[in-house]
Design a protein that fits this description.
This protein has a single domain, classed as MFS general substrate transporter like domains (Growth Hormone, Chain: A, Up-down Bundle), CATH 1.20.1250.20. The chain has 18 helices and no strands. The chain has helices spanning 3-11, 18-33, 39-45, 50-53, 55-78, 80-100, 104-113, 118-131, 134-166, 169-189, 201-212, 215-245, 250-257, 259-278, 280-303, 309-336, 342-367, 375-401.
Length: 403
């Protein structure tokens, strides 16, 4: 029996609706982006430094990275559904705690607990791989994340508006309500999709070296990590660039931050439409090339003395487009190296991506000042995106060598 037929015959009756997967991935993305326009206001509210409150971004990403390493193996052993339900319950409580916090350290503690929602990001991809083969999974991941992209596109806009009229806490109250809704929906409509396990947890661990020593796995993971690293660097620096460098209001800062998501949604559409025909390796290279081209033009204009929010955020749309094309294919590739360890691969790959993003986010936030403008951030984003091209070329070369 082929892999395709095995997957099809064993999962046809337990496929969740695509809407559930969009909600799972979307609540995770919303948690990451909705409050970004409020960082300056939160700095004032908690009477702290911007570098401290910026830990709500970089520290959250680091916590997410650690949790993804744990979530994947747990879901492979005990199932996708129970891990998701527990994680969503923790996130709901943590979101409410963050909204009610009056001390910055208490807020950050609850913020780090919010990282439990990483299960939605990890396992929405894993569930797709449970029920589709490699190329079809890339296509479906593209469609899932296309829907997900709409949420971070409007999230900062909503967050900026809420902060301006109701205060920064309102964004976290919104997350609390949204998490509760997703928890109820998953309880009612999310079936278990994990393939039948025939071995023990010890057998599963014994298979890990085959995944961790696979050059193909690392090639796909690094391609995704460097591609998303450019976006995470943008997350770490965008509040300062939008407010302090370009003088944008919280509402317009949220609108500007939505520019990559517009491109990301379009890139996801292209991924869903063409991944099966083009193949995941070429899609990775195309996506990395588009992102690097856009960031390279933006950097060149900045070096020529052209610094304007339309230039900076406008070319970030191409960053989003490139990542929207690349990430579904790179993710599907990494999950297909060892299909029975798809949850582990998704968690480990996501952890590497998020850990790198946490470092880049923190570094981007620390390297910016009024005198430098956006130039250091543009340089960092361009270099990181180019490394994604190198990783994609490595994967192509490796797969050709394997025949």
């Amino acid at each position: 029996m082929t892999e395709n037929s095995a997957i099809s015959s064993s999962t046809t009756e337990r496929r969740p609706g695509i809407g559930i997967l969009v909600l799972l991935a979307g609540i995770s993305a919303l948690s990451m982006s909705i409050f970004l326009p409020s960082l300056q206001a939160m700095t004032t509210y908690f009477e702290t430094d911007y570098a401290v409150i910026q830990l709500a971004v970089s520290g959250y990403l680091a916590s997410t990275a650690v949790l993804q390493i744990i979530i994947g193996p747990l879901a492979d052993r005990y199932g996708r559904r129970p891990v998701l339900l527990v994680s969503l319950a923790i996130f709901t409580v943590a979101s409410l705690g963050a909204a009610l916090s009056t001390d910055v350290m208490v807020f950050l503690a609850f913020r780090f607990l919010q990282a439990s929602v990483a299960a939605g990001m990890v396992l929405s991809r894993t569930i797709v791989r449970d029920i589709f083969d490699q190329d079809r999974a890339a296509s479906m991941i593209g469609y899932v994340t296309m829907g997900m992209a709409l949420i971070p596109m409007i999230g900062p806009m909503i967050g900026g508006s809420l902060e301006q009229f109701l205060g920064w806490q309102s964004s976290f109250f919104l997350l609390t309500g949204g998490a509760l809704f997703v928890l109820v929906m998953c309880t009612m409509r999310l079936p278990e999709t994990r393939p039948t396990q025939t071995g023990t947890f010890r057998d599963q661990i014994r298979d890990y070296p085959g995944l961790l020593t696979s050059p193909r796995f690392w090639g796909y993971v690094l391609s995704a990590a460097f591609a998303s690293g450019s976006f995470f660097a943008l997350l770490g620096g965008t509040s300062f660039v939008a407010g302090a460098v370009f003088g944008l209001s919280p509402v317009w800062a949220g609108v500007a931050l939505g520019s990559p998501a517009i491109g990301y949604a379009f890139g996801n559409f292209l991924s869903g439409r063409y991944s099966v025909q083009v193949g995941i390796d070429k899609m990775c290279l195309i996506g990395a090339g588009i992102a690097s081209t856009g960031l390279g033009i933006s950097l060149a204009l900045a070096l020529a003395g052209i610094q304007h929010p339309l230039v900076f955020f406008g070319f970030c749309t191409l960053l989003g487009t490139g990542n929207g094309i690349l990430l579904p294919s790179a993710t599907s590739g990494s999950l297909s190296v060892r299909p029975h360890l798809a949850g582990t691969a998704s968690g480990l790959g996501g952890a590497i991506m998020i850990a790198g993003g946490a470092v880049l986010s923190a570094y981007a936030g620390s390297m910016l000042d009024i005198e430098s403008g956006a130039l250091p951030l543009q340089t960092l984003m361009f270099v990181t995106s180019c490394l994604s091209i190198v990783s994609s070329l490595y994967v192509i070369r490796r797969n050709k060598a394997l025949g």
